[in-house]
Amino acid sequence: GADPTGGGCDAGRVSTVITDIGELVTNDPGRGDGALGLLRDAAVVIDGDAVAWVGPARRAPAADERYDAAGRAVLPGFVDSHAHLVFAGERAEEFAARMSGRPYTAGGIRTTVARTRAASDDDLRANLRRLVGEMARQGTTTVECKSGYGLTVEQEERCLRIAAETADEVTFLGAHVVPPEYAGDPAGYVRLVATEMLAACAPHARWIDVFCEDGAFDADQSREILTAGVRAGLTPRVHANQLGPGPGVRLAVELGAASADHCTHLTDADVDALASAGTVATLLPGVDFSTRQPYPDARRLIDAGVTVALATDCNPGSCYTSSMPFCIALAVRDLRMTPAEAVWAATAGGARALRRDDVGRLAPGARADVLVLDAPSHVHLAYRPGVPQVAAVWKAGRRVPA
Ligand code: NIG
Ligand code: FE
């Protein structure tokens, strides 16, 4: 092909053939069986940061390097489309109190805000990198990261700047909760978020999010912030219907949000609204697990034609898991998704929620985000819950160190 250095072997760009794949999840129904586009006895060729070739192992072209998958399953890396990773400290005691009966409330966010404000840039950066590394070793190759533990103009701007260094997708969540210094003036805080804070933060972010919930922001406040975000060039996503029924899902649909996240408490009208729109329902079963909430009804959403994504929501309060395989296992066992639906939702579904077509699938031209499972099929992700099953991971063509 066209090699700008003129040589046959560009030192900076290596091709790798992953061969003897027992089961390949392409998420390309035109290429293989079912919604996962499954191929047997397949190979994938990575060239630089992209997939160059996908097909039967016996016809695979040669490459600089060879990885023998020895009959294992290969998937696109997981797309974790919802996480809060710029923070300091932890809240293990709050979790323990919850497990002995105390309910989860949005108020716990303020504990992390105080710790985050007091942390140095380097401490926030190191914690973020630790978590993104933890995710990568578990097969996650695309990470969305929100702000929301700074809640001043300077602190939110700082959190987003740090997020953008490491995360694939960055979301401004100044409207996570009203910070203590605005406790008597929530309207003043909404105005700040929609004006000065947004102006400082928009250059670092692609998305704007609001926690639309009792104890956080109501429909009018959320609409004001999200529409200001749209005017600033950001696309909405919404924390909706997490702790009880509410207006979040319908607001997300009204504003053409990419995703309504949580969706634990839905009315028929909410399900109908999602089904008639392009808004993805992003389910976060790790949160419902870690807050002892009921689980969302994925079956009802899928049967109504709604696109469902799965994500971790990794954060120090409501859910401190970074494991997409754990979320897949919960989705299959407790949200009544099939293993194939859950794997699709954790890869292609996350890509839809982030409006990305270069990740969440394995086809020529896609980013070379590849997960080799230490198992013969994708079903094992839910079938063997809690068992490490990652054999190898490439992110944008680079091998993730084990
Ligand atoms: O997605 N719902 C709002 N935000 C997070 C929780 C953050 C926290 O408790 O620190 C969530 O669950
Ligand atoms: Fe969240």
Automatic annotation (TrEMBL):
Its main location: cytoplasm. Binds 1 zinc or iron ion per subunit. Pathway: Amino-acid degradation; L-histidine degradation into L-glutamate; N-formimidoyl-L-glutamate from L-histidine: step 3/3. N-formimidoyl-L-glutamate binds at Y149, N315, G317. It catalyses: 4-imidazolone-5-propanoate + H2O = N-formimidoyl-L-glutamate. Fe(3+) binds at H82, H84, H239, D313. Keywords: Cytoplasm, Histidine metabolism, Hydrolase, Iron, Metal-binding, Zinc. Its cofactor is Zn(2+); Fe(3+). Zn(2+) binds at H82, H84, H239, D313. InterPro entries: Amidohydro_3 (IPR013108), HutI (IPR005920), Metal-dep_hydrolase_composite (IPR011059), Metal_Hydrolase (IPR032466). 4-imidazolone-5-propanoate binds at R91, Y149, H176, Q242, S318. Residues 118-400 form the Amidohydrolase domain. Its EC number is 3.5.2.7. It is found in: Cytoplasm. Belongs to the metallo-dependent hydrolases superfamily. HutI family. Catalyzes the hydrolytic cleavage of the carbon-nitrogen bond in imidazolone-5-propanoate to yield N-formimidoyl-L-glutamate. It is the third step in the universal histidine degradation pathway. This is Imidazolonepropionase. It comes from Actinomadura keratinilytica. The lineage of its organism: Bacteria, Bacillati, Actinomycetota, Actinomycetes, Streptosporangiales. The gene is hutI_1.
